[in-house]
Design brief:
Elements lengths: L1 E3 L5 E3 L20 H70 L4 H29 L4 H29 L4 H23 L3 H27 L9 H35 L2 H38 L1 H28 L1 H9 L6 H8 L6 H13 L3 H26 L1 H27 L4 H22 L4 H18 L7 H8 L10
Antiparallel strand pairs: 1-2
């Protein structure tokens, strides 16, 4: 059947053959699927690093230009956009990666429905935001800043589609290119806004224009290289997309609420100083959590394909990936705890010395950071988004309850324990749910061995103390590796089993 795609070109229904690089689940001859997954994870981690570096530069430029008062205003507007964006596009982006990953043959019609739905959502969001801005008693400068914030929100919606296409087709080098182009545009645009003395509105507009331009270019490239969307206004499919995406968007908002819950409760139950001490420690630790979510996103298309075609292989892939993730996150938590003092002194200065103990404690939450992302996205691949979000909501509720109970007694340490408890609750609930769905087998004994290795490392780091970071890190890591190897925590032949599991079987041919 012939039609028109979003690029204005004639297209054929999804039975048309795509370029080899656009066929998800078909690895090039001689290319290991595990190497392909690792390569995509690496590209997304580099993308995360580039975005982080550009954000630090923009933060420094805008803070020095605006000063405390105006910087606070733009921070509030940015927070509104950053809280709303996951609800609007976070779930949509993950759902796109999942759906294209599990059904590459139907990508053209699915993506066409996503595009028309995005245009409708953008129109509704823009109209509602403009109505709110006009209704508020704002000064002209603040009104312009609010409109710039709306533009930044729309730019985020545009960028999510192109990024999801690259993730779904496991070609994340293009996400890295898009992130690099964003950074190369945002920094000079911010400098231009400062030179023109454009105020808060100029800073926010600079953060919107660059991503908007690169997103449009990236999407045009994706149309030509991977999939030509077949535009369609399909109300039934819109409802299906929204029903699948909304829980994921809510989950992204819940995930972002962890730090805010602790900070608000510390400020209310203790003091603003206590909230600041915790916030500094958590912001240092959360970088690993964000990177873990990035890794999970890179693996999602492959998990979705296995969930549709080969459940036994999905089980094997999950078990071995979980052990690898734990083998990375456990020593990473130990190294952050060991180097807490020099790390915080370098970044925020000696006046935040009280945050060192908090960072050493909150680093325990990093143990489950990467595994939690894997478990979450595996539930998504199985079509159990609502279950994953329910567990996330329960973990946030547990965080609040533990904070209310522990902060009056332990202060900042109580908030750290609340966050640790919430993370471990989500890990436990998700692991049990996946065991029921996939009947996990080899993972349980290895989990105990990795946990024992981590406890030994933690004891060494605790005894060495924060004053001797090099000794704590060296001997702690040596203790972990020694027990990990001697106990054979990773099953023999595990890497070969993972490679086999990541090779999806060919699609079933329907006559």
């Amino acid at each position: 059947m012939l039609g028109l795609d979003s690029c204005g070109q004639p297209t054929v229904s999804s039975c048309v053959s795509m370029p080899a690089e656009a066929q998800l689940g078909t690895d090039a001859p001689g290319r290991s699927p595990m190497r392909r997954v690792a390569k995509n994870v690496g590209f997304l981690l580099m993308t995360h690093g580039v975005s982080l570096a550009a954000g630090i530069v923009v933060l420094a430029l805008s803070a020095r230009y605006l000063g405390p008062a105006l910087f606070g205003e733009q921070a509030v507007l940015r927070s509104v956009a950053h809280i709303a964006l996951p609800l609007l596009t976070g779930g949509l982006r993950v759902n796109m990666a999942k759906e294209i990953g599990r059904d590459p043959e139907g990508a053209a019609s699915y993506l066409g429905s996503v595009l028309t739905l995005r245009w409708l959502m953008a129109a509704v969001v823009a109209a509602a935001a403009v109505a709110v801005v006009l209704a508020l008693p704002l000064t002209p400068a603040r009104e312009r800043a609010a409109y710039a914030m709306v533009l930044m929100l729309l730019a985020g919606m545009w960028g999510a589609v192109a990024s999801a296409v690259f993730v779904a087709y496991e070609r994340n080098e293009y996400n890295l290119a898009m992130s690099t182009a964003n950074g190369l545009l945002i920094v000079p645009l911010t400098m231009l806004a400062i030179r023109l003395d454009a105020g808060v509105a100029g800073i926010l507009a600079a953060a919107a224009v660059g991503p908007f331009v690169t997103a449009q270019i990236a999407f045009s490239f994706a149309c030509r290289r991977f999939v030509r969307p077949k535009l369609a206004v399909d109300l039934v499919r819109w409802r299906q997309i929204l029903r699948a995406s909304l829980p994921l968007g809510v989950g992204a908002m819940l995930k972002r609420s962890y730090a805010r819950v602790d900070v608000f409760l510390l400020a209310a139950l203790q003091s603003a100083e206590a909230a600041g001490i915790f916030s500094v420690a958590y912001r240092a630790a959360i970088q690993f959590t964000s990177a873990s979510t990035t890794v999970g996103t890179a693996i999602l298309p492959r998990l979705s394909l296995l969930a549709r075609r080969a459940m036994e292989q999905l089980r094997a892939a999950l078990e071995h990936l979980l052990l690898i993730f734990l083998a990375v996150s456990v020593p990473a938590a130990g190294m952050i705890a060991a180097f807490a003092a020099p790390l915080l002194t370098l970044v925020v200065g000696a006046e935040f010395a009280s945050s060192i103990a908090a960072l050493r404690l909150i680093s325990i939450a990093i143990v489950t950071a990467a595994p939690d992302a894997l478990l979450f996205f595996c539930l998504v691949a199985l079509g159990r988004e609502a279950v994953a979000v329910r567990y996330l909501a329960l973990s946030v509720i547990a965080n609040v309850v533990l904070d209310v109970l522990l902060i009056p007694l332990l202060g900042v340490s109580g908030a750290c324990l609340g966050t640790i408890g919430a993370e471990w609750i989500f890990f436990s609930l998700s692991l049990v749910a996946l065991h029921r769905a996939l009947k996990l087998t080899v993972v349980w004994r290895s989990l105990l061995k990795i946990a024992a290795s981590g406890v030994a490392m933690g004891l060494v780091i605790y005894v060495a103390g924060p004053e001797r970071p090099v000794i704590a890190a060296g001997f702690g890591l040596a203790a972990f590796l020694l027990l990990f190897v001697l106990s054979r925590a990773f099953p023999p032949g595990g890497i070969r089993a993972l490679r086999r599991a990541l090779i999806p079987p060919p699609p079933t041919v329907q006559h």
